[in-house]
Specification:
alpha+beta, six-stranded mixed barrel, single chain
């Protein structure tokens, strides 16, 4: 079983390391990871847990991962980790398409090939996560990333994932990556269950951790500066709006005062009473 599992991991180019950051990962972060000694292939991507409506009318937690759309065999992209093995149908090639992961642990959904996954209205700020809300299922796949018989934990809803789906990276609205997968050079020849493999991966992991502090601090500083600039812009807009309001009010009050003055003067002219204008208005 270990031999079969290790062979499947190698054939699907399963990652050795998965890098996450609470503030997301930029292209600069990806290049820094790629430059670490011992790092092989690097694949940045996106993922998100969302509520999805099933054809039966239920709402379940769906986990979407990004994949390259150019996955036909003759155009398979370089540095493509966690490759999908088709069980039914085909891989997605259009932006509105997706595939779902099949497995004994994914028992909470009733989706089939040909169905459409509709993202639920129960999701908050969905426009910040996805650029579309429906995905046509064109295939069922096996993934080395999800081989456990246990269901994955989720950070929304019931706390467990009912369905795992893969769609093009273009469908995510994030401006930074949410995850980066990396392989370690030389591990293809090792059994992933061996101490030799664990030591090799740990060595590269330690090197990535060594550079992560500076990268995280820079990302924090960038986000802080961006937020402060947005706050400054908002305050400037508020000040401009307040000035426009004050100017408009001053004009309105001036016109109102002029109108009242003209009105009182005309009445006095009819009665024949001559007023001391300034004194009368002050009263």
């Amino acid at each position: 079983m270990r031999y079969s599992g290790d062979r499947f991991f190698d054939e699907t180019h399963m990652y050795d390391l998965r890098i996450l950051s609470e503030l997301g990962l930029t292209e600069e972060d990806v290049e820094a990871i790629r430059a670490v000694e011992g790092v092989g292939e690097v694949m940045p991507g996106y993922y998100a847990d969302v509520f999805a409506d099933t054809p039966d009318g239920d709402t379940v937690v769906a986990r979407f991962h990004s994949v390259p759309l150019e996955q036909v065999e003759e155009k398979e992209p370089e540095n493509y980790l966690n490759r999908l093995e088709v069980v039914e149908g085909r891989l997605p090639v259009k932006e509105d398409e997706c595939v779902i992961s099949g497995g004994s642990y994914l028992t909470g959904s009733s989706f089939e090939v040909g169905d459409t996954i509709e993202l639920s209205a129960d999701n908050e700020d969905l426009e910040d996560t996805f650029t579309r809300t429906s995905f046509k299922i064109v295939g069922v796949v096996k993934s080395s990333n999800y081989f456990s018989v246990e269901r994955e934990p989720a950070n929304i809803g019931s706390g467990t994932v009912s369905i795992v789906a893969y769609t093009g990276a273009q469908n995510f609205a994030y401006d930074v990556y949410t995850e980066v997968y990396a392989s370690v050079e030389g591990t293809q020849e090792m059994s992933c269950f061996s101490d030799e493999y664990k030591d090799a991966v740990q060595a590269v992991s330690s090197r990535i951790e060594a550079v992560s502090g500076a990268l995280c601090q820079k990302r924090y500083d960038d986000v802080k500066a961006q937020t402060e600039q947005q706050l400054a812009d908002a305050r400037a807009q508020l000040a401009d709006a307040q000035q426009d309001y004050d100017d408009g009010r001053a004009v309105y009050e001036g016109e109102l005062r002029s109108g009242r003055m003209e009105y009182e003067f005309e009445i006095d002219a009819v009665t024949g009473t001559i007023l001391d204008w300034d004194a009368d208005w002050d009263d």
